[in-house]
Design a protein that fits this description.
With about 280 residues, the protein is mostly helical. Helix content is about 50%, strand content about 10%. The chain has helices at about 10-20, 35-50, 55-60, 60-75, 85-95, 95-100, 105-120, 135-145, 150-160, 210-230, 240-250, 255-275; strands at about 160-165, 170-175, 195-200, 205-210, 275-280. Helix 5 (about 85-95) runs antiparallel to helix 7 and helix 8 packs across helix 9 (about 150-160). The longest helix has 19 residues, at about 35-50.
Length: about 280
């Protein structure tokens, strides 16, 4: 029994504190309490192991276990959901000043590993893009299934529409090449790296390693697709081609046809890979 406690809430608090402190603050001297301590910690650490495998391998089992225990003891999680454990761990990790100073890439690596889980469980609205059409559909409409139709004419018809990215996607820009970090490459040189993570139609999580410009293009396309999928007028949204031109101007890059076509080809490739699920007319 909990010492001098008849209050149910006091009992719960003492039980939780015992588990979080690994028995350093005892709720009871009953040796069976160790079963709960071990079980709870193994569950928490199991989530961390599966979400941050590269971080765990680089830091080593002993240090990683100590870090997990410190997280359990010190971090006041804002959510009771198990799926939020890894997100809470990122907040905890951000407060580990000495560790981050010694390994400045660690927080970005952890965020990169967390993105896979975050995208895997992202909620999406069923049939949210029913009105979106694929590149192939526009190709057939414009060419009338005529294989002799100039491909550039067909592509222009598609890029004059508003591309619709999947809503099961997230992007980030890092100061380190996080996708190259491993136990054999644990001291990476700084290198600006763009990452897009998305869930395809087969519910498989995919990664695109790219650069800040293409991440900016993806984020702009997300903004424009939100306009056409909401109450805004479709005419206010930029087409794929207009989005490429907008970013080129914003970056003060040469506004050549080659540069514009290059940006449009990226959008076409994203459509093939499943990051772009279709397009809508303006």
């Amino acid at each position: 029994m909990v010492k001098n406690s008849s209050n149910h809430l006091d009992l719960q608090a003492a039980f939780a504190q015992d588990i979080r402190s690994d028995g350093h603050v005892l709720a009871t001297t009953d040796p069976r309490m160790q079963i709960y301590r071990d079980l709870f910690f193994k569950n928490i650490k199991g989530f961390l192991d599966s979400t941050f495998p590269v971080c765990a391998e680089i830091l080593g089992e002993q240090y990683w276990t100590e870090l997990a225990k410190k997280f359990l003891l010190q971090h006041a999680s804002a959510s009771p959901y198990f799926l939020k454990i890894s997100e809470e761990f990122l907040l905890f990790l951000n407060q580990q000043t000495t560790l981050i100073n010694d390994s400045p890439w660690l927080l970005e690596l952890a965020h990169y590993e967390w993105l896979e889980l975050a995208v895997d469980v992202l909620d999406t609205q069923e049939n949210e893009f029913d009105n979106a059409v694929s590149f192939q559909s526009v190709h057939q409409k414009e060419s009338g299934d005529d294989s002799s139709q100039d491909a550039s004419v067909v592509e222009k018809a598609w890029f004059d529409r508003v591309p619709i990215p999947t809503s099961a996607a997230m992007s980030a820009i890092y100061n380190f090449p996080v996708h190259e970090i491993s136990p054999n490459n644990a001291s990476p040189n700084p290198q600006t790296t763009g990452i897009i993570v998305f869930r395809d139609q087969s519910d498989r999580v995919r990664f695109i390693h790219t650069n800040p410009f293409t991440v900016a293009l993806f984020e702009l396309l997300c903004e424009q697709s939100s306009m056409v999928c909401s109450s805004f007028s479709n005419h206010q949204a930029m087409s794929g081609r207009e989005s490429v031109i907008h970013l080129l101007k914003q970056a003060q890059m040469v506004l050549s046809e080659a540069a514009i076509d290059g940006g449009c080809r990226i959008i076409a490739e994203w459509n093939e890979r499943g990051l772009i699920v279709g397009s809508m007319s303006k």
